[in-house]
Amino acid sequence: MTAQSSPSPSTGEGGRCHAHPDQPALGACTRCGVFFCERDRRLVDDQPYCDTCAARPDVDYLERFRLEYWGKRDGWAWMVGINAVAYLIGGVFLLVAGGANMLTTALFWLVAGAVCACFWLGQPWARLGFVFIPLVFMGISLVKAEPMGLAFGVMPLLMSISIYNDTRNKLFFQVEMPRETLRKAWHLYKNNAVARAGLMLGVLGLFFPGVGLIALVCSGIGLRNVDPDAQPPIGRKGQAIAGLVLGAVGCLFWVWLGVYGFPRLG
Ligand SMILES: [Zn+2]
Ligand SMILES: [Zn+2]
Q: How many angstroms is it from 29 CA to the middle of ligand 2?
């Protein structure tokens, strides 16, 4: 708490901060128009706000997005957690029943299981440690002169690197990120997700009967959602239209197939 001094003699020009009357105003909030001083001036996407407005989720949707996933397990974290159980059970089994020649493999599985378990628990070091599991596996294969093992490590290595770079997984590990990265992830996961789903279903509807109908519904809702003037702007108009077209084509195709049957070959 700062002691509020009595209003200082006015200079006769310029406003005073709404929250701190002893401070000269630096400007007005973009949203509510209140005067702010240096202490409660907040920049959101280069626009100045008062600190009350800056905290509003409709003003800072990226902050809302960040908080929604901050420290929360994503799909990858759960997948790695299931891996941990499999590695640990397999490792114990090999240790008990595998004999001396399986000792290296058993120990590798146990260590890998421990790393995966720590990953699931959100231990910061395990994020990089997880990438080292396929690397160590490939290293062991190299030492044992088993080229197949080396080949088997490539896919898991690429996968673990992509998990390492995944924005939602980084949010689970509470890694600070630039707003641009958050914006890309927000666009992928949050920007008119129903329109994005509609387009995917529209493609599926060409191959599976009935799916085109769901695509039409999703794309229709998605198209209605589109609002470039909203805060944040809601896009994917093109995808919604493409989903409607594909959904309609899929429906017509399957109806046509139902009426006339599969074309007889030969
Ligand atoms: Zn404001
Ligand atoms: Zn102030």
A: 11
| Bigger pLDDT: 13 vs 153 | 153
Q: How far is the CA of 121 from the centre of ligand 2 (A)?
A: 41
12 CA from centroid of ligand 2 (Å): 18
Tokens, residue 15? 């406003």
CA 180 to ligand 2 centroid distance, Å:
29
- Which domain range does residue 204 map to? 188-259
Q: How many domains does the chain have?
A: 3
Ligand 1 centroid from CA 58, angstroms: 12
> Quick one: pLDDT at residue 197?
94
Does 125 map to a domain? Answer: yes
Higher pLDDT, 233 or 22: 22
The answer to the question of residue 15 being in a domain is no
- Exposure string for 131-158, b = 16+ CB within 10 A, e = fewer: bbbbeebbebbeeeeeeebbeebeebbe
The domain boundary, picked from 112, 136, 171, lies at 171
What pLDDT is recorded for position 124?
96
